[in-house]
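User: Can you model how zinc ion sits in this protein?
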Amino acid sequence: MAEQGAIKPGDTDVLIVVDVQYDFLPGGALAVPDGDAVIEPINRLARALQHVVLTQDWHPSGHASFASSHPAKQPFELTELHYGQQVLWPDHCIQGTPGAEISRDLLIPHAQLVIRKGYNAGIDSYSGFKEADRKTSTGLEGYLKERGFKRVFCAGLATDFCVAWTALDAVAVGFETYLIEDASRAIDTNGSLARAKNDLSAAGVHTISSAQVLGA
Ligand code: VGL
Ligand code: ZN
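Assistant: Here's the modeled complex, given as structure tokens:
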């Protein structure tokens, strides 16, 4: 474990703040337990990193990832879609609704890009880079590479879905990738958090605390 403040943020680093939206916060349609605990550490990290990108889960109503789109299915059950297995969710982050808005408690006026994902009706997208069919690109890889970034720091909601998949795709396309654990919170359904942690370490994503970037 690196010492506090050992990772010095610089000009080729980017912080990706994943899905800090009202539907994932307390009272939201798919509230992540303790989800609002990410806001303060993310605000501190954002003050330390010059370059910040946000992701925004952004589904049309009737989206294929919603249990309500599948007769006789309940939220958190699994189904098969054309690209493989899909967890079914409560309706959430519907385009243009208050639940899809990014929290106003995030204080990141210098954020440079908001990348929306999950807008194709038949395909989910946990990752900010690539949709769940594992083919359709959001354009984020090209953007970050064209900007010259080398290291990606991921934080937000939820650790075991959108943060993990974003970090896994970042490392897969060649970024040195860090997941900031205390600035993220998990849904943890059917063993998803343990599975995500295994996948992250197997892929070489570094799991760190915000103190390692910020100092004490
Ligand atoms: C997410 C489930 C469905 C996330 C998004 O942001 O982790 N999880 N849609
Ligand atoms: Zn979603």
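A couple of observations from the model: The two ends are 14 Å apart (CA to CA). Strands lie at 13-18, 52-57, 78-81, 84-87, 113-117, 151-157, 176-185, 206-208.
User: Helpful, thanks.
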